[in-house]
Design a protein that fits this description.
single chain, 143 residues, alpha+beta, Nuclear Transport Factor 2, Chain: A, seven-stranded mixed sheet, 2 helices, 7 strands, disordered N terminus
Length: 143
């Protein structure tokens, strides 16, 4: 599976120079990031949950959630803004070793209806994957 952030068939660039990332970890990371991008664009978060471990740690600059129950109840902010659309640039997945994967996410926001540019935002997402599930999600705003 590829990380295709805006629904186009652009392939994901994978692996760092070390080449340590397993195909399972790449598959899980790509599926999770694709589901998360879809949720950010549509508000439909259902495809995200099956990829998370029961003991998921979800860490952001404004809130931390622990466990799948808290994530299901508290992940309400992952949805499109009322007056904006968001697109994501093609992402590279970098192997940090030990089941940890990182990506830099470039978001482009445009006005709904007109498509006029509004602003951009850059984020860094780090994932930890164990037993084919995301056990840790950490997002930081960068730049």
């Amino acid at each position: 599976m590829h990380f295709v952030p805006s629904g186009r068939n652009a392939p994901c660039r994978s692996l760092s120079a070390s080449g340590r990332m397993s195909s399972d970890e790449l598959e899980i990371a790509s599926a999770f990031l694709t589901a998360l991008a879809f949720a950010a664009q549509t508000g439909d978060r259902e495809a995200v949950y099956p990829l998370l471990a029961e003991e998921i740690e979800w860490l952001t600059p404004t809130r931390d959630l622990h466990g799948i129950g808290e994530v299901r109840e508290g992940l309400t902010w992952v949805r499109p803004p009322d007056n904006l659309e968001v697109e994501f640039a093609d992402q590279r997945l970098d192997d940090l070793g030990g089941g940890r994967i990182a990506t830099e996410v470039h978001e482009v926001y445009t006005l709904k209806g007109t498509g006029e540019f509004a602003f951009t935002r850059d984020r860094r997402i780090e994932l930890a994957i164990r037993d084919r599930k995301v056990v840790r999600y950490e997002m930081r705003i960068v730049g």
